[in-house]
Amino acid sequence: MTIETRLAELGIELPDAPAPAANYVPYVISGDLLYVSGQISTVKGRLGADLTVEDGAGAARSCGLALLAQARAALGSLDRVRRVVRLGAFVNSTPEFTDQPKVVNGCSDLMVEVFGDKGRHARAAVSAPALPLGVAVEIDGIFEIE
């Protein structure tokens, strides 16, 4: 089964790959690795203040959809992904908020839904006192490719 077929089965339609917001490229291919720049959520706000863990997980999922859109733009097809290697996540949260891993599961779960075992990855889920444009979550990714 192709990844596009899998996305359709899951009822997932990827957004257009977002354009860079500053002086960087959205992705770089080096050898058999695809590095995707940080993708920001569509949700704004701060975890532990005005957003719940569920809101944050939804924000992380939107980052995951943007990561997949960038990967498809870079590769032409998500079928070229051999493995999701690593996700690096930043969660806009208060100093007292400690559920960053639960928030980032919104993206991690998406990768496993889409790629199965190839979607299991290493990751970092850290707090940030602020993120660009006031968004809740930013996530970058590294993918092994064919």
Automatic annotation (TrEMBL):
<dbReference type="Pfam" id="PF14588">
    <property type="entry name" value="YjgF_endoribonc"/>
</dbReference>
<feature type="domain" description="Endoribonuclease L-PSP/chorismate mutase-like">
    <location>
        <begin position="4"/>
        <end position="134"/>
    </location>
</feature>
<dbReference type="InterPro" id="IPR035959">
    <property type="entry name" value="RutC-like_sf"/>
</dbReference>
<protein>
    <submittedName>
        <fullName>Enamine deaminase RidA, house cleaning of reactive enamine intermediates, YjgF/YER057c/UK114 family</fullName>
    </submittedName>
</protein>
<dbReference type="InterPro" id="IPR013813">
    <property type="entry name" value="Endoribo_LPSP/chorism_mut-like"/>
</dbReference>
